[in-house]
Design goal:
Elements lengths: L14 H6 L4 E4 L3 E4 L2 E2 H8 L3 E5 H17 L5 E5 L6 H10 L2 E4 L2 H9 L7 E3 L6 H10 L3 E4 L2 H14 L3 E8 L21 E2 H13 L3 E7 L10 H19 L6 E3 L16 H12 L5 E4 L3 H4 L3 E11 L7 E5 L8 H5 L5 E3 L2 H4 L3 E7 L8 E9 L6 E5 L19 E6 L2 E6 L25
Helix pairs in contact: 3-4, 3-10, 6-7, 8-9, 9-10
The protein binds pyridoxal-5'-phosphate (PLP).
Pyridoxal-5'-phosphate binds next to α11.
Cofactor: pyridoxal 5'-phosphate
GO molecular function, one term: pyridoxal phosphate binding
Protein name: Diaminopimelate decarboxylase
């Protein structure tokens, strides 16, 4: 097959390519790999591995780029960071200081965002299955708005609000039936997905919401998926929302807000990342003349490239009969789940400058968890790495630590924040005893065997 590359992995970016595309990372002869000028070896020496490292400067710079692109297009949307991408209090605090609000999908995330100091009025509450308790919490806090995702939820929210004398500011999240062109597990705007209200029903439901007690309909929300790098799906979705706004206004109903959701993609391998200027252009072109307040809910684009996962090669296991060797890391799918869940590609860099110059070979990079899915890369071309070598798994600042589990008795990894040359542990490595600290053995279970 002529159009088939001999091996996809051979086209993977090299160490030099990965560094060139990430100005916050650099390789120094003595210090090795640095993030925002802090040597990762110093962090690993002090804290051990696996450890998540987040760059505050990169995070701020990303926020300013996005905000600047919107302003450059004459837009001033409120920016609500999607907390599910990275829920650390320090991350939320840094973004809040830049002016960001939050997009939350549970009562737990709402309380986290409040604990980080995000004003309730700048928080948006999304999600397909909000409980009555979560709705009541959001209303008691004074939430900015709640994105309602079904007719059933609309009735429940009306009941919760009216029975306590609150007025719930809402948008209806519409499902525009647009294919975001992304991985099937992160697309949300197709009619077959569980998210949002069917487009054809949205206008009638908006009208109905205006007549229900306890609700203040403000407008519409849309969020078509994640890791979107093409603008056509955005344009299509925003155009449908704009039509909807005009249709309900024609029925005499006010609309003052359109929430454009998140989803802007980043460069993991060699994708051209979603440009904030292009997103701003799409919003302006489709929604710019509607005279509404605008909101966006970026997660991955702000936090993804600001973080990495620092790990160490436990051992190198020879492959059979010329097959690639296995590099078994001390990080695993319980730490970084994206490769197992979405077949996601993450760049891998050696931390030592000497390792970075060794001859390149194809290896399978895996974790020690007892699942075949516990794999970070198959047939990846990397400089030769031996037992003890440290590596950085790149672009893990979004949907990284938040998705971790303790599967296989593996405590949650430590987290470190780097900023302006200094660094601090922002989450202690989870003590192993805490894995069973909440377990209770009923007294009718056999006592431990002698010597146990
Ligand atoms: C997940 C999510 C986002 C953020 O998505 P990203 O791809 O991380 O930008 C925004 N809004 C809603 C409703 C979400 O569920």
């Amino acid at each position: 097959m002529l159009d088939c590359p001999s091996s996809p992995a051979e086209q993977d970016p090299t160490v030099a390519d990965l560094l060139a595309a990430r100005p916050h990372l650099s390789m120094h002869a003595l210090d090795g790999l640095t993030l925002e000028d802090v040597p990762l070896n110093a962090i690993a020496d002090a804290v051990g591995t696996p450890t998540w490292v987040m760059g505050a400067g990169t995070l701020r710079a990303r926020y300013r780029l996005l905000d600047g692109a919107m302003r450059g297009a004459g837009l001033a949307p409120s920016i609500h960071f999607a907390v599910k991408a990275n829920d650390h209090l320090a991350v939320l605090r840094i973004l809040a200081a830049e002016g960001a609000g939050a997009d939350v999908v549970s009562g737990g995330e709402l309380r986290r965002a409040r604990a980080a100091g995000v004003p309730a009025g700048r928080i948006v509450f999304s999600g397909v299955g909000k409980t009555r308790e979560e709705m009541a919490l959001a209303l008691a806090e004074g939430i900015g708005h709640i994105a309602v995702e079904s007719a059933e939820e609309l009735d429940i929210l009306s009941d919760v609000a009216a029975s306590s004398g609150w007025v719930a500011p809402i948008t209806l999240r519409v499902n525009p039936d647009v294919d975001a062109g992304t991985h099937e597990k992160i697309t949300t705007g197709l009619s077959t997905n569980k998210f949002g209200i069917a487009y054809a029903r949205a206008a009638a439901l908006y009208e109905r919401s205006a007549s229900l007690p306890g609700l203040k309909p403000l407008g519409f929300s849309v969020h078509i998926g994640s890791q979107i790098v093409a603008m056509a799906p955005y344009r299509a979705a925003f155009a449908r929302v704009a039509d909807l706004v005009r249709a309900v206004r024609a029925r005499g109903l006010p609309v003052s807000l359109v929430d454009c959701g998140g989803g802007l993609g980043i460069t993991y391998r060699d994708e051209v990342e979603g440009a904030p200027e292009a997103l701003a252009g799409a919003i302006r072109a489709e929604l710019g003349d509607l005279d509404v307040r605008l909101a966006i809910e970026p997660g991955r684009w702000l936090a993804g490239s600001a973080g990495l996962l620092l790990s160490r090669v436990i051992l190198r296991k020879a492959g059979e009969d010329g097959l690639p060797s296995f590099l078994i890391l001390d990080a695993a799918m319980n730490d970084l789940m994206r490769p197992s869940l979405y077949e996601a590609w993450h760049g891998i860099l050696p931390v030592s400058a000497r390792d970075a110059t060794r001859p390149v070979e194809a290896v399978n990079v895996v974790g020690p968890v007892c699942e075949s899915a516990d794999s970070f890369a198959d047939g990846r071309f990397l400089p030769r790495l031996d037992e003890g070598a440290r590596v950085a798994l790149l672009d893990t600042g979004a949907y990284g630590a938040v998705m971790s589990s303790t599967y296989n008795g593996r405590p949650l990894a430590a987290q470190v924040l780097v900023d302006g040359g200094r660094w601090s542990v922002i989450r202690e490595r989870q003590p192993v005893e805490s894995l069973w600290a909440a377990d209770r053995i009923p007294d009718w279970v056999m006592p431990a065997p002698a010597g146990g």
